[in-house]
Amino acid sequence: MVNFRRLLDRLVVRLVLVVIAAGVAAAILVAVLVGNLARSTIRSEIATGNLTRAQDLAVRFDTRVDTVTTNLLIAAGHPAIQDLERSAETTLRALLARSETFDELVLFDADGAPVAAAASRFLATPEDYPDRPDLAALSEPSARTLEVFPPMLEVTTPVEFPPGNVLGTLLGKVPLELVGSHIQQQSLTNGTDQFLLDGSQRVLVTAARDLMAQETVYPLPAFYTGSAVHGVTEIDNDRWLVAVAPTESFEGAVVVTQQEAAALAPVASQLRQLSLIVVALIGATVVGVSLMGRFLLRPLQSLTRAVEKFGQGHYDARAEEASGEIGAVAREFNHMADRLSRRRSEVSEMHALSLLVTSREDRQAVADDIVSGIRRLLGAEAAAFTAVDDQGALDPVSTSGPISEWPSAEEVSRRTLGSGEVVVAAEQDGVVISLPISEIDGELSGVLVVVRREGQPDIEEIRLAETFASFAGVAVENVRRLELQQLLVHELQQALDRRRELLGNITHDLRSPVVCISNFSARLNDEWRDMEPAAAELLNEIMAQAEILDSLIGSLLEFNAAERGPHRLTSAPVPVHRPLNAAIDTLGSLLDGRPIRVDVADIEVMADFILLTRVLMHLLSNAARFSPPSTPITVRADVNGGIVTIEVEDEGVGLTEEEAAIAFEPFWKRVESTDQPQPGLGLGLSLTRDYIKAMGGELGVRSRPGRGSVFYFTLTSPASVGGEIGLHSGDLQYPGDSGLSSDQNEAPAEA
After folding, report:
1. pLDDT band at residue 578, thresholds of 50, 70 and 90?
2. Angle of helix 459-527 relative to helix 363-378, nearest 10 degrees?
């Protein structure tokens, strides 16, 4: 017994020493953390202030540039300038004399040729300035910096007369030092500096004028992403607080920098004093805790051992219940251990039941699991689950145990149905508990009734039962949603099948009369050669309309065939010029009289001959229909890194960005720009995209309204697969009635 006490004394001493050592370490750590936190807070406040200053300087600079632009725009409205005559030089000199801003003013005509000029530093004439054709397309004022030192701000604005009709351009140059005067006028404190950078990170305006003479470049920190931001960066082994604010008038930024050491110097001594105070307080606390712990450890040993065993999984461990306050704590611990052990078994049962209930997909199986689970969880004699029908009545779904022996169970269920709350009714032989089962949206879907012969349930048992009822509501909702999803999927599949069948029937029914019209028209054309010219013209129109209708029906058949499902296709090396020639021959009269420029050399691609021909036919036909007949169509091919890019370019009406984004959707047709609408159903580009995708490529478009379009697609070069002639397969259905031979190695003789 004596040795055991000595062992405990040594343990207590060691624990006290450990507490003291841990306290000292904690004191040092807290002091360091407090110091760093204070430095971080002050650093953040200073950096935020610098960022505010940078943003203010950027706004002032942009405002100054806007003012310069506005003055130039006002000058552009002068009648003498709008005449674009050399007499405008007098007006320019007068404006320059009255202005305290501009250094040079130059007037250009609509072609970018100088017309008049005035400068404050020399006698300027239009001959002193080169042509500026890049200003001809200017439709709104713009500003940029010039590659001269000291740097200049060049501002241009269109000359309009009448408004909306651009006749020329007025250009003004202003020294950036004058525009950025706010940056130079800022007072520098604590090592703070600010300057203006251009898009190449070159210093344009700064308070340190010698930096401008040296053409200094200030690399922006990595954390700058184009928006106002501040951070810390290292320059020559020194840490600097850097704030960057972008300018909106042109590509540039205002930078405010400050050395971190200089910024934190005024508060360094205060931080040291604060750290010493924190260390002293924690040290005193450690000493007091150590002394108190030495006094309290002895009577708490039994309780500590019980807690340790309980924490290690020995849930039957209990503390010795002594007298006094420690004894009260031990009794409370034992009571808590009993409750935790009981709740642990209940939670384990709840977890198993929730997994079982929520994994079912059948409504009746879920109801049976709910009833049997609540009986095991609460140790009940009987249980029943009743659902709420469309009229709000209770419909029995599943029962377990002799629930019929308890007549009050139905009445208690109706009370829960009316209130939506848990109802507990005490009976002579036991207790009846009614629980509402709600779906995710809160709507009552059923009532769960439990009967047991024990006493009133405590609040923990009620909460446990409510949690289980929540799981049951989720399970019922999941089953209902699964059934609804299955029904919707079935109806959707039926609708798709009906759509495909209807499309196929309509197109086949339409083709028969079209064939008759075409055949009869051809026969009449062969036999009635001497008919009146008007009748011949009418007959030709009938034949043309029949061809258009036949083309539309062919597109529908092709689209319907592609939707039915993929068939196998094969790819082999194909020279680009062969399917291109086949496509041009097939289109026939559509391309007659139109210049076709071809630059495909001897390039080969891995492709299906028939599908590649169809792709080129669709793209060439599209280019011909939406461009003037006299404009050329260009087809070019290029190889880069084993990928062949084939482009079809026209000079037609082009596409807007919105139209280009949906151009490949089925049945999309652009808004007609002429009085005679173009034939077609809007399926050509959609089918072209599917064909290219099946051959392993990508299809895209580049277009500008009024300037034409470039439709391009990519395919693999045979060289990228080792130059072998082996075949590989993809998935797509061949278009029906394509008019081409199915032999890939032979080009069709006639379309």
Report:
1. very high
2. 170
